[in-house]
Amino acid sequence: MRTPLMYSTLAPWWPLISAPADYAEEAAAFAALLPPRDGTSPTILELGSGGGNLASHLKAHGTLTLVDLSAEMLAVSAQLNPELEHVQGDMRTVDLGRRFDVVLIHDAVMYNTTPADLRATLATAARHCRSGGTVIIAPDCTRETYEPDTTHGGEDGADGRSARYLSWSFDPDPTDTSFETVYTLVLRDVDGTMTVELDRHVEGFFQEAEWIEWLDAAGIDARCQLDAWDRPVFVGTRR
Ligand SMILES: C[S@@+](CC[C@H](N)C(=O)[O-])C[C@H]1O[C@@H](n2cnc3c(N)ncnc32)[C@H](O)[C@@H]1O
Fold first, then answer.
1. CATH number at residue 217
2. Which tens digits make up the pLDDT trace of 118-164?
3. How far apart are CA 134 and CA 104, in angstroms?
4. Which residues contact ligand 1 via a Cβ below 6 A?
5. Looking at the structure, do residues 17 and 77 belong to the same domain, yes or no?
6. 199 shares its domain with 233
7. For the chain, how far is it from start to end, CA to CA, in angstroms?
8. Ligand 1 centroid to 94 CA: how many Å?
């Protein structure tokens, strides 16, 4: 699939499309799932960390390493989180050669569009999690909870830029494991120049039972729970 514009040429607009401040509550919910501290800071690997919005809050709770496919998104994250380690890599194949107390995958897991993609990503999570460590994976939805929808959002930046978007999610082929979210973005630059972009994202959804089965096959004992926004969160322990 073509890399979404949002994660390539339009990456510098990411904080105006999705503001770091909006991730505070979600980060607090993930922090509550972290293993109890014994005075040390847990090491946390986030796969698909994007612009580092979630990490900007979670870094108070551990030592984070951030992996993303997109160099442009890593650059945005490095501005927000200059003290964190950033690594370019594909969540399906990356191997950092070390293990963490916690492996976290947030909304980026949605870009696994086939069972093979998702199973490769779960194997990456298992490969990087120490035995007894915690794996947290928070897709936007499962196959059962997916609903087509239309939303809008955007921010006015302190630097004079503004962004607004309309997003439209639909499932063009109910027989496969992917759906589409199309964004229309209206971007106003500092000098008032307006640009309109259309950005197509192909995302994957899988049944809860498939998630649990594939997590188990990867060596992770997991359960699915709902977060405060009724979204599924898979919380597991690496065997
Ligand atoms: C919605 S953004 C994540 C935003 C992030 N939760 C935050 O707090 O800023 C999705 C990210 O997934 C990344 N991504 C998509 N496929 C990936 C893959 N196979 N491996 C690693 N990252 C991937 C994209 O580059 C993008 O940065």
1. 3.40.50.150
2. 999 999 999 999 999 999 999 999 999 999 999 999 999 999 999 99
3. 8
4. 7, 23, 48-54, 68-70, 73, 90-92, 106-108, 111
5. yes
6. no
7. 34
8. 14
